[in-house]
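Hi L.,

You mentioned the student needs an example of a multi-chain input paired with its predicted structure. This one should do, with 518 residues in total across all chains.
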Amino acid sequence: MIDDFLLRALLGGLGVALVAGPFGSFIVWRRLAYFGDTLSHSALLGVALGFLFHLNLTLGIMLICQLLAILLFFGQRQKQLASDTLLGIFSHGALSLGLVVLAFMEDVRVDLLAYLFGDILSIGATDLGWIFCGGGLALAGLLRIWKPLLAITIHEDLARVEGVPVDRINWAFLGLVALTVAVMMKVVGLLLVTSLLIIPAATARRFAGNPEIMAILASLIGCFAVAGGLYGSFTWDTPAGPSIVVAACGLFLFSFILPQRLASGVSGQ
Amino acid sequence: MSDNDSLLELTDIDLSIGQRLLLQQVSLKIGRGEILTIIGPNGAGKTTLLRVALGLLPPTSGRVRRQQNIRIGYMPQRLQIDPTFPLTVKRFLTLTGKKQRSEILPLLEEVGAAQVLESPLQNISGGELQRVLLARALLREPDLLVLDEPTQGVDVHGQVELYQLITRIREQRNCAVLMVSHDLHLVMAATDRVLCLNRHICCSGSPEVVSNDPAYLELFGPLAVQHLAIYSHDRSHRHDNCAEHGECR
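Structure written out for the whole complex:
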């Protein structure tokens, strides 16, 4: 026997985990974890924007995430501030601004915890639509730029000399990450989005001999984390979003017990 | 050589970033089959000049002219790949090109790195990495090879081999080679022309001419004189020299 809301939660969670795997892999390879954090922290501002202009909240989040991605893209071209300092400013600035703006809107009652830590059990049919359409779009976009993005990840200048349109690909990637973050918000909340991106990818690393295997493994591991977290949440009545992250961490630790397949072994196929 | 023959020509390049003048009135040109080496102290703008030549960095003023449809093989100074990125040498070489795997192995054999074909890129030695990077540049069948310190992280014996390899590549493929180097004495034996850079061009010409140029001697001081002595000996003597002092392996 499985309740409807639980089924929707599972579907939404699995959808998000599938999208998070490949994106998380790139975020780990390119050391963008803090960047993902910054994008997701800005999401609360998107929620406020949604209330303010009576937009769909997910749409508001997407808009703000895209905007921040653009700001960061230009911000990182200046050389005055180190990029982690810049990200820290944007990250906490955006989060705090979101909280302040929400506080000003007296007629709006917001379940803040739901945005911070996710509210997967309240996923409705519309949310599922957003997750699968938005997530599908993000994955399709990533597939399109997969090869050039790998080349840029290896060495940006080398890719440029070999004719890869580096700026365009980077733009596209940032936009797609912003979309992914917006999609993931509902499931794990803005504080935990990065964890679902990087923990499965980090877990997959030990067993992957090439980038594609790692991305696919990360998706699968994310799915297990979602299923395990939901099960735990249902059984012990714990908050769902954090339970999923705890499950992901558990898998990460567990992976060290398993024998590592040598990288050179897997890639030989 | 007439102007039209040069694959790449830089004219009066100035480059400043902020208040700092990094390059001043630098001109160079390079033609097919020629090896041009840029030497100079740290911070002289060698890598910056390469980046301008490659079109990665727009000059503040001056003109960069590359022959149309020229294929450039670029070997960057260092490759820092995150340890979490699973990538074998084979995949690294097949990633952007349209090359078949059967074409990769002969090339790796040519540069002397066939044994690392299946190894993860992060696990190979500095010398092997330089060879793999060179192979990647060669995969494009370049008209112009641009090498940024090709012997970085390579022991002395390997350095000699690498410069011999570069000379051989030039002979076999008749491509031009533009490289930056720190190894004064080794490079002098392996290049057609030398360009001595310290933000501006101090002197340039054949190795013999540059080695005796006062500007060169001033820039590198006693080091240059010492290397000059070594340069005028033959290679086997240098090996003896090395072994005697027990400094290189």
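You could point out the following to them. The CA atoms of residues 30 and 153 of chain A lie 6 Å apart. Residues 4-190 of chain A form a domain with the ABC transporter involved in vitamin B12 uptake, BtuC fold (CATH 1.10.3470.10).

Best wishes,
N.
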